[in-house]
Amino acid sequence: MNNQAAEIPAGAAVPKEAEKPHELVGTVVGGYRVVRKIAEGGMGVILEAKHLNLGQIAAVKVLSKELKNDRSYPEIYQRFVNEAKAISRIQHPGIVKVYDQGQLPNGTTYILMEYLDGESLDRRIARGPFQAEGTWMPIPLVLRICRQLVSALAEAHRKSIVHRDLKPSNVILVADPEAPGGERTKLLDFGIARFTDAGQNVSRTGTMLGTPLYMSPEQCMGERVDGKADVYALGAMMFEMLTGRPPFGGTATALVVHHATTPAPDLSVVVPGIPADIKALVAKMLQKDRKARPTMIHLLDELRRLEALYPATDDGRSGAAAATDPTRMSMDFSALDGAKTRLTRPASPMESALRWWWIAIPTLAATLAGISYFLLR
């Protein structure tokens, strides 16, 4: 590819990225030189950086320096630092890795972390439906994604860390030839995670934190939460993967009221024909009473059981784009044959025998007819 800048015609609008690159581009952070800006939000910016000697790519998450003038900056700063601490404590292949955390010369705080080249779960859901009838995403794919997430969350809970902000945009699907289906889930953004063992929760009691579309009833009420809040949020995500929409919609206020008081919609009404055991599992995860929800450990066992009952199709297609395809972030899967993503099950002995006889009988009849023809000539 030609590295020289393309000539811009007179009068043409100059892209914002071309007008002024991010101020940190070209600087060195923890042995990595910042290359470009990846994304930007109200809390800060995420940059791509390359190691000076090894060439390894990493992501640099930088807290916005403008926040220093905010009265809640000490709390925001503590959450940012706790994110690095939480991820470093868990050490699970399903959670983004953190390499370093510190301060830049200008005083802003950064986290140096693993660069994830993949597709967010919310974009994967948006590309659906993946089959002409039935669930929005194939059941084997939903089960695999949820089981991988539960495995990571079970380890987080074992280390006394509650995520508290589970949502599809915080899950990245990355290529991994060693993982079932050829890809692995990566969980990120532990910015409002709660440490349940050492009182490191930086939010005040009565403060509502999280994303309303997926928040548990106790979170909506500003109560102290435990791992069961993550179970509820994952249940809402599973509902969305199966139906194409979250359990509830509306304004933030309406969502809080629904999560706190309204029973979750019946999956079999939204998706007729949903297997009863999967419907029952999602319903348990979305119980208003946290005591009625399963733990992550119990959920992991149940998802493994369901994966065995609803295996992936023979061709292994899961809706994932090829690892070598540079367009996989926005690949259009509308042309997928719906039949190839439907559920399959092993044929019973009786079905196998009948299939054999349907082939054998016509073949035998044709053979006998041929022999009779030559004998009677």
Summarize the helix and strand pattern as letters: HEEEEHEEEHHEEEEHHHHHHH
Strand order of the largest sheet: 1-2-3-4-6-5
**Span of the ends, CA to CA:** 76 Å
Note the main sheet: 6 strands, antiparallel
Rounded to an integer in angstroms, the radius of gyration calculated over CA atoms is 26 Å
- Secondary-structure-based class equals alpha+beta
- Structure annotation, total helices: 11
Tally of strands: 11
In terms of per-residue confidence, which ranges show pLDDT below 50 for 5 or more consecutive residues? Answer: 1-14, 200-206, 315-319, 321-364, 366-377
Helicity level: 25-40%
Mean pLDDT: 80
Oligomer class: single chain
Rough shape?
globular
Q: How much of the sequence is in beta strands? A: 5-15%
